[in-house]
Design goal:
The chain has 231 residues and is an all-alpha fold. It contains ten helices and no strands.
Length: 231
Protein backbone atom coordinates (compact mmCIF):
# COMPACT_ATOMS: atom_id res chain seq x y z
CA UNK A 1 0.00 0.00 0.00
CA UNK A 2 3.01 2.27 0.39
CA UNK A 3 1.80 3.94 3.60
CA UNK A 4 2.71 3.45 7.23
CA UNK A 5 -0.04 2.29 9.61
CA UNK A 6 -0.18 5.78 11.11
CA UNK A 7 -0.60 7.33 7.66
CA UNK A 8 -3.42 4.92 6.85
CA UNK A 9 -5.25 5.90 10.02
CA UNK A 10 -4.68 9.60 9.31
CA UNK A 11 -6.14 9.15 5.82
CA UNK A 12 -9.33 7.66 7.24
CA UNK A 13 -9.56 10.41 9.86
CA UNK A 14 -9.44 12.94 7.03
CA UNK A 15 -11.97 10.92 5.04
CA UNK A 16 -14.40 10.97 7.98
CA UNK A 17 -13.98 14.74 8.41
CA UNK A 18 -14.61 15.38 4.70
CA UNK A 19 -17.71 13.21 4.82
CA UNK A 20 -18.96 15.06 7.89
CA UNK A 21 -18.61 18.41 6.12
CA UNK A 22 -20.33 17.07 3.02
CA UNK A 23 -23.11 15.68 5.23
CA UNK A 24 -23.72 19.13 6.72
CA UNK A 25 -23.78 20.68 3.25
CA UNK A 26 -26.33 18.11 2.11
CA UNK A 27 -28.31 18.76 5.27
CA UNK A 28 -28.51 22.47 4.46
CA UNK A 29 -29.65 21.77 0.90
CA UNK A 30 -31.94 18.92 2.01
CA UNK A 31 -30.36 16.59 -0.52
CA UNK A 32 -31.47 13.17 0.72
CA UNK A 33 -29.22 11.18 -1.62
CA UNK A 34 -26.10 13.02 -0.47
CA UNK A 35 -27.18 12.88 3.16
CA UNK A 36 -27.37 9.09 3.07
CA UNK A 37 -24.20 8.73 0.97
CA UNK A 38 -22.06 10.87 3.26
CA UNK A 39 -23.46 9.28 6.40
CA UNK A 40 -22.43 5.91 5.00
CA UNK A 41 -18.94 7.21 4.12
CA UNK A 42 -18.45 8.77 7.53
CA UNK A 43 -19.49 5.56 9.29
CA UNK A 44 -17.20 3.37 7.18
CA UNK A 45 -14.21 5.70 7.63
CA UNK A 46 -14.54 5.57 11.41
CA UNK A 47 -15.10 1.82 11.40
CA UNK A 48 -11.95 1.45 9.34
CA UNK A 49 -9.98 3.60 11.78
CA UNK A 50 -11.01 1.30 14.61
CA UNK A 51 -10.19 -1.86 12.68
CA UNK A 52 -6.76 -0.53 11.73
CA UNK A 53 -5.93 0.36 15.32
CA UNK A 54 -7.21 -3.01 16.48
CA UNK A 55 -5.35 -5.16 13.96
CA UNK A 56 -2.12 -3.14 13.96
CA UNK A 57 -2.01 -2.60 17.72
CA UNK A 58 -2.01 1.19 17.63
CA UNK A 59 -3.86 2.42 20.69
CA UNK A 60 -7.40 1.40 21.56
CA UNK A 61 -9.90 0.77 18.75
CA UNK A 62 -12.83 1.61 21.02
CA UNK A 63 -13.00 5.42 20.56
CA UNK A 64 -13.12 5.25 16.75
CA UNK A 65 -15.63 2.39 16.80
CA UNK A 66 -17.80 4.27 19.27
CA UNK A 67 -17.65 7.31 16.99
CA UNK A 68 -18.83 5.11 14.11
CA UNK A 69 -21.88 4.07 16.13
CA UNK A 70 -22.58 7.62 17.26
CA UNK A 71 -22.29 8.79 13.66
CA UNK A 72 -25.06 6.36 12.69
CA UNK A 73 -27.26 7.32 15.62
CA UNK A 74 -26.95 11.05 14.94
CA UNK A 75 -27.21 10.63 11.18
CA UNK A 76 -30.39 8.58 11.32
CA UNK A 77 -31.98 11.27 13.50
CA UNK A 78 -31.13 13.85 10.84
CA UNK A 79 -32.50 11.67 8.03
CA UNK A 80 -35.76 11.11 9.90
CA UNK A 81 -36.18 14.77 10.86
CA UNK A 82 -35.49 15.80 7.24
CA UNK A 83 -38.30 13.55 6.07
CA UNK A 84 -35.91 11.26 4.21
CA UNK A 85 -36.41 8.14 6.30
CA UNK A 86 -36.69 6.07 3.13
CA UNK A 87 -32.98 6.63 2.44
CA UNK A 88 -31.96 4.87 5.66
CA UNK A 89 -31.92 1.50 3.90
CA UNK A 90 -28.93 2.68 1.83
CA UNK A 91 -26.86 3.03 5.03
CA UNK A 92 -25.25 -0.03 6.65
CA UNK A 93 -27.00 0.37 10.00
CA UNK A 94 -26.88 -3.41 10.42
CA UNK A 95 -23.08 -3.28 10.55
CA UNK A 96 -23.29 -0.59 13.22
CA UNK A 97 -25.52 -2.93 15.24
CA UNK A 98 -22.73 -5.52 15.20
CA UNK A 99 -20.11 -2.95 16.20
CA UNK A 100 -22.43 -1.83 18.98
CA UNK A 101 -22.44 -5.37 20.36
CA UNK A 102 -18.68 -5.16 20.85
CA UNK A 103 -19.00 -1.89 22.74
CA UNK A 104 -22.24 -2.62 24.61
CA UNK A 105 -23.49 0.52 22.86
CA UNK A 106 -27.06 1.14 21.77
CA UNK A 107 -27.61 1.68 18.06
CA UNK A 108 -30.76 3.21 16.62
CA UNK A 109 -33.28 0.74 15.26
CA UNK A 110 -34.51 0.75 11.68
CA UNK A 111 -36.72 -1.34 9.45
CA UNK A 112 -34.51 -4.06 7.99
CA UNK A 113 -37.34 -5.81 6.13
CA UNK A 114 -36.14 -4.53 2.74
CA UNK A 115 -32.59 -5.82 3.17
CA UNK A 116 -31.36 -8.79 1.16
CA UNK A 117 -28.55 -11.34 1.07
CA UNK A 118 -25.54 -10.48 3.25
CA UNK A 119 -27.14 -7.26 4.54
CA UNK A 120 -30.18 -9.18 5.73
CA UNK A 121 -27.90 -11.79 7.30
CA UNK A 122 -25.99 -9.05 9.12
CA UNK A 123 -29.22 -7.67 10.54
CA UNK A 124 -30.30 -11.13 11.73
CA UNK A 125 -26.84 -11.82 13.15
CA UNK A 126 -26.94 -8.56 15.09
CA UNK A 127 -30.34 -9.40 16.54
CA UNK A 128 -29.08 -12.81 17.60
CA UNK A 129 -26.11 -11.15 19.28
CA UNK A 130 -28.51 -8.87 21.12
CA UNK A 131 -30.60 -11.80 22.28
CA UNK A 132 -33.57 -10.84 20.09
CA UNK A 133 -35.74 -13.13 18.02
CA UNK A 134 -34.86 -13.04 14.35
CA UNK A 135 -36.11 -15.05 11.41
CA UNK A 136 -35.44 -15.05 7.65
CA UNK A 137 -31.93 -16.49 7.96
CA UNK A 138 -32.69 -19.11 5.30
CA UNK A 139 -34.08 -16.40 3.04
CA UNK A 140 -30.91 -14.34 3.37
CA UNK A 141 -28.75 -17.38 2.69
CA UNK A 142 -30.67 -18.28 -0.46
CA UNK A 143 -30.38 -14.69 -1.70
CA UNK A 144 -26.64 -14.71 -1.03
CA UNK A 145 -26.18 -18.05 -2.81
CA UNK A 146 -27.96 -16.61 -5.85
CA UNK A 147 -25.30 -13.92 -6.27
CA UNK A 148 -22.26 -14.66 -8.42
CA UNK A 149 -19.00 -15.51 -6.68
CA UNK A 150 -20.37 -15.67 -3.14
CA UNK A 151 -19.24 -19.17 -2.20
CA UNK A 152 -16.84 -17.93 0.50
CA UNK A 153 -19.41 -15.48 1.86
CA UNK A 154 -22.00 -18.27 2.08
CA UNK A 155 -19.52 -20.49 3.92
CA UNK A 156 -18.63 -17.62 6.25
CA UNK A 157 -22.20 -16.78 7.23
CA UNK A 158 -22.95 -20.47 7.66
CA UNK A 159 -20.04 -20.62 10.10
CA UNK A 160 -21.39 -17.62 12.06
CA UNK A 161 -24.72 -19.41 12.40
CA UNK A 162 -23.03 -22.60 13.59
CA UNK A 163 -20.93 -20.70 16.13
CA UNK A 164 -23.96 -19.07 17.72
CA UNK A 165 -25.62 -22.43 18.20
CA UNK A 166 -22.56 -24.48 19.13
CA UNK A 167 -21.66 -26.21 22.37
CA UNK A 168 -18.59 -25.26 24.42
CA UNK A 169 -16.86 -28.38 23.13
CA UNK A 170 -17.46 -27.54 19.47
CA UNK A 171 -16.92 -23.79 19.70
CA UNK A 172 -13.09 -23.70 19.71
CA UNK A 173 -12.52 -25.68 16.47
CA UNK A 174 -15.33 -23.76 14.76
CA UNK A 175 -13.79 -20.44 15.80
CA UNK A 176 -10.44 -21.54 14.35
CA UNK A 177 -12.19 -22.49 11.10
CA UNK A 178 -13.93 -19.12 11.01
CA UNK A 179 -10.58 -17.37 11.42
CA UNK A 180 -9.16 -19.31 8.48
CA UNK A 181 -12.16 -18.33 6.36
CA UNK A 182 -11.30 -14.68 6.99
CA UNK A 183 -7.79 -15.27 5.63
CA UNK A 184 -9.30 -16.57 2.39
CA UNK A 185 -10.88 -13.16 1.76
CA UNK A 186 -7.45 -11.95 0.62
CA UNK A 187 -7.92 -13.82 -2.66
CA UNK A 188 -11.69 -13.75 -2.95
CA UNK A 189 -13.25 -11.52 -5.61
CA UNK A 190 -16.51 -10.94 -3.73
CA UNK A 191 -14.74 -9.55 -0.66
CA UNK A 192 -11.98 -7.82 -2.63
CA UNK A 193 -14.66 -5.93 -4.53
CA UNK A 194 -16.41 -4.84 -1.33
CA UNK A 195 -15.65 -2.27 1.35
CA UNK A 196 -12.14 -2.25 2.86
CA UNK A 197 -13.74 -2.87 6.28
CA UNK A 198 -14.68 -6.38 5.13
CA UNK A 199 -11.06 -7.51 4.77
CA UNK A 200 -10.94 -8.42 1.11
CA UNK A 201 -7.84 -8.26 -1.10
CA UNK A 202 -4.98 -6.13 0.19
CA UNK A 203 -6.99 -5.09 3.26
CA UNK A 204 -6.98 -8.61 4.67
CA UNK A 205 -3.70 -8.12 6.54
CA UNK A 206 -4.71 -4.81 8.15
CA UNK A 207 -8.29 -5.55 9.23
CA UNK A 208 -10.09 -8.40 10.99
CA UNK A 209 -13.46 -10.09 11.27
CA UNK A 210 -15.45 -7.86 13.61
CA UNK A 211 -18.50 -10.11 13.22
CA UNK A 212 -16.52 -13.08 14.51
CA UNK A 213 -15.18 -10.88 17.31
CA UNK A 214 -18.72 -9.98 18.35
CA UNK A 215 -19.69 -13.66 18.38
CA UNK A 216 -16.63 -14.54 20.49
CA UNK A 217 -17.60 -11.82 22.96
CA UNK A 218 -21.23 -12.94 23.04
CA UNK A 219 -20.26 -16.56 23.71
CA UNK A 220 -17.66 -15.57 26.33
CA UNK A 221 -14.88 -17.36 24.48
CA UNK A 222 -11.26 -16.25 24.81
CA UNK A 223 -9.59 -16.71 21.45
CA UNK A 224 -5.85 -16.47 20.95
CA UNK A 225 -5.93 -14.62 17.68
CA UNK A 226 -6.45 -11.31 15.89
CA UNK A 227 -10.24 -11.46 16.14
CA UNK A 228 -10.38 -11.32 19.93
CA UNK A 229 -11.96 -8.04 21.05
CA UNK A 230 -9.53 -5.76 22.81
CA UNK A 231 -11.29 -2.60 23.90
Amino acid sequence: MGKTPEQLITNYVSHAERSDRAFETARSSRDSELLAFNLQQSFKARLMQGLLRWRLGIGSPAPALLESVETINEGLTVLESAGTKGKISSVNVERAWIVGCLLDATVASFDESNLKADRLLDAILAKRLLGLRAGLWDTGMEQLKALEGTELAVETYSMYFRLLGSSKTDFAPLAISASKLFEKRAKDAFYAGGDPTEGGGMYNKITLDYRLAAILKKMGFIFDGIHQWRG
